[in-house]
Amino acid sequence: MTLVQPSDSEPGKAGSAIAFQLDPASGVPTFLQLVQQVEHALRLGYLTTGDQLPKVRDVVADLAINPNTVMKAYRELEHKGLASGRPGQGTFVTGTLSQAGLPEIAGLRRALQRWLVDSANAGLDEDGMVALFSSTLRDFRERGAAAESRAARSAPREVGGGVA
Amino acid sequence: MNVIETSALGRRYGGQWALRNCTLNVPEGHLVALVGPNGAGKTTLLNIAVGLTSPTDGQITVLGGIPAGSPTALDRIAFVAQDMPLYRNLSVSDMLHVARNLNHGFDVAYAHGRLGNLGIGLRHKVGKLSGGQRAQLALTLALARHPQLLVLDEPTASLDPVARHDFMATVVTAMTDDGVSVILSSHGLAELERVADYLVLLTDGAVRVDGPVDDLLRQHLRLTGPVGAPVDPRWHVVESRDARAVRVLLARVDDPAMPVPDEWEARAVGVEELALAYLRESPAPTRPFMVEAAR
To answer: How confident is the model at residue B36 (pLDDT cuts 50, 70, 90)?
Structure first.
């Protein structure tokens, strides 16, 4: 091994779909920040199966962090079944966390933006929007659970988990 | 393989022990942070490891049993001293020439490549370079020897934040590419939090705490409880502070999975917090009942 970089055709990190950043004030360990950023990108569809994660060397050179930390993060992602290492090539995404494709997510994001504008026009500030969204999400979840437990009651066999 | 192995290592200057009874095993493949207050013996330990100083007492070997300071050891270890010793009146190109003639296996092509990437011209006088460039030049000269162990004594102390970041990026990149192990002394705890995965903490010439950072963080807890709450005997208190109502401890615990008594709240610690607790004046032994009586 030498220090001369057998870099891909293009310089820089144009090749990787995501770029990591660190928040030193978050108190979250560095390796966990990397794991969470990959999961976040998977959830939002920025990363999909077959994509290559940033090369350890690029992450290290970019953020000036210990290579062992990056490898630990990638091992954790492998452990979760989200990525797998190919010897001599790098680490690639093998799992997915997004339940919808990029176009659907883009559409949902636009709908949400419209909702945010409506909320602002109605006089809600950010905290108000968050509160309304959270409470609606909670209702949604409870209704879902109630529907499930109704289904369970009508089924011949009792299934636990009904919400009081 | 251990990159540094010492047993009861000591070094005395006159009547003063700079390092005393220092026993240490540092495995390879890490970036080791050597931390301690001024005068704790960091530079002495590093100087002994690279063969610049001989010990008064005890043993030290490097890179899997090679005596420190032996020719084999010198060939495989690169050292960048605190003051970045370079010939300021030479041009960068002459500096490379000197380094090539003073070192076995000096990789000129590598040095040229790196200096080119950094935009450091070969014709420049060393003395005219910025602090960051001088540090990068010293680091390049060290890495061009393709060492197995890179020893850095407070390398970033005089650098601005960008130069500091770039310097550390070079170090960790060399770690990634060449698998070089690194030992570096520094006061920059926040910076070490990002780069170091192994900690050696010296106070008064002896090792206070050492080990892989992950293990150390797992073994230590920040505990908050009411003043007067009994301290579990299985907690080894590193630091203890009392406010009027609240007692705050940082403690090493034998079993991290052990449940914490109800009146205490526990949370994980970071490297900086951990190191600071050990670096503060040696804590008075905790005497919960006396403190309660004093209230």
So the answer is: very high
Pair B24, B59: CB distance under 8 Å:
no
User: In 3D, which of A37, A38, A42, A72 has the Cα closest to residue A56?
Assistant: A72
Q: Taking the alpha carbons of B234, B235, B238, B243 in that order, is the dihedral positive or negative? A: negative
Q: Do A24 and B193 touch (CB under 8 A)?
A: yes
Residues B134, B256: Cα–Cα separation, whole Å: 45
- What's the pLDDT score for residue A155? 59
In single-letter form, the type of residue at position A101 comes to G
Averaged pLDDT, B164-193:
92
B176 touches chain A (CB under 8 A): yes
Among the partner-chain residues B29, B172, B270, the one whose CB lies closest to the CB of A27 is B270
**In this complex, do A64 and B177 lie within 8 Å of one another by their Cβ atoms?**
no
Contact status, residue B237 vs residue B223, Cβ threshold 8 Å? no
Q: Is the pLDDT of residue B142 over 60?
A: yes
Higher pLDDT, A44 or A101: A44
Determine whether the interchain pair B113/A68 forms a contact, defined as Cβ–Cβ distance below 8 Å: no
Task: Indicate the SS3 state at residue A102.
Answer: helix
Establish if A2 touches chain B: CB-CB under 8 angstroms. yes
**A22 and B CB contact within 8 Å:** yes
